[in-house]
Structure formats: C-alpha cells, structure tokens
Amino acid sequence: MTSLRERLLATVAGQLGRPHGILSPLVARALNRGNETAIAAAVDSAEIARGAVTADIGFGGGAGLQLLLDRVGDDGVVHGIEIADDMLRRAGSRFGRDVRSGRLRLSPGSLTELPLEDNSVDALITVNTVYFISELDAACKELARVVRPGGRAVIGIGDPEVMARLPFTPHGFTIRPVGEIAAALQNSGMQVEQRRIDEKPIPRHLFIGRRD
Q1: Cα 128 from Cα 31, distance rounded (Å)
Q2: Number of domain units in the chain
Q3: Structural domain that includes position 108
Q4: CB burial string 97-135: b at 16+ within 10 A, e below
Q5: Which residues does 138 contact at the CB level (< 8 Å), separation at least 6?
Q6: N or C: which end of the chain has fewer CB within 10 A?
Q7: Distance of CA 160 to the CA centre of its chain
Q8: 71-116 pLDDT, tens per residue?
Q9: How confident is the model at residue 22 (pLDDT cuts 50, 70, 90)?
Q10: Cα angle vertex 86, ends 109, 36, to 5°?
Q11: Would you say residue 127 has pLDDT above 90?
Q12: 136 CA to centre of own chain
C-alpha cells in the first residue's frame, strides 16, 4: 500500500506541475518566492528591448509576467502561456488592466503545443517546466519555431543532482542532465549558451538559445 508520506509527496509534485484547487493560491505564492532569482536571471538573459514581443511559458505564480511587462513597456506585448487553468484565472485577475489593454495576452497551452505563430516573439522564458514533459526535443523545436531570427529562448532549471535528491521529485518529475537539455535546444537550430547561478539551496542553470 502507498504510505501517507508517499501520497503527500505525490500531491506536492502534482501541485508543482499543475497548481489546482484550494491549494493553488499557496502554491502560486511559493513558486514566486522560490523561483524569483531564477526568473529574474532568465529575463535578464533574454535581453529584452522596450516594445518587444515576449512570452513566459508555464508562468505559474506570475512573477515572470510582471518582470516582462516592466521590460517591454507600454508599447510591448507579453504572452503568458500556462497549462494550469487556476493559474490563468489568477493571472487574469491580478493583471486585469494589462489584459484589457492588450499588453498581456493569456492563453492555455503547453511547451509542445504553443498557441503562437511562427517567428512571432522576440524573446521567451520558461523556468522549471521541462521536468513535466516527456518530449524535450519537440518542446525545444516549438520554442525555436516561435522565436524570430535574432531572438532568444531561455530555459531555466534547478541543478539536476540537487533536484534528484528532493523527496517529491520521484513522483512525476523527469530530471535530465544539463547536457541533454543543452543538446536538445541546440538540435532545434539555436546557438546555445549556458549559465550557472550559485543560488542556495538549489543552484540554477540557464540555457540561452539564440536564433540566427
């Protein structure tokens, strides 16, 4: 029989992958707090100009949406794409003015099926999302498809060795080596730069893909 501890850990993993139900507001706030450094570093690495068209794929608690809105200014556009309905509703409420103005465009979608046109964004970020997909190559090809020539796609993850030791990651996380993610992004046709952020308790890795 599955122990109570195992059921609790599976619940935690499931909420992190797709926040839902009465726990979703707490999970959203926890995601924002726990990932704020990694998200800010991803936004910086995307080198976003004023007036740009950007996207946050799997935005979770929405911290990245605010940072992107700040970067693109009044003339830019941010696409927020999320698989979790509760996170979409939360973002719609929190950023209602930006949604109404058209600066923020919220859509349901996943890494392997992005609701974006080819060559439609100048930069995108996706942080702590690739744990929850089985088709990494397909996801990276989708990122490359929607980024314009000269644009950037930034993937952020926690250090795989540290993540693998966390008690909840065996319950639905796919932990991949750094090299596997870099290779998948490179195989999508992008030039890839890697950066490491020595954050505690979980160091972070960024993979910055650039379209030629």
Answers
A1: 10
A2: 1
A3: 4-211
A4: ebbeeebbbbeebbbeebebeeebbbbbbbbbbbbbbee
A5: 112
A6: N
A7: 16
A8: 999 999 999 999 999 999 999 999 999 999 999 999 999 999 999 9
A9: confident
A10: 80
A11: yes
A12: 14
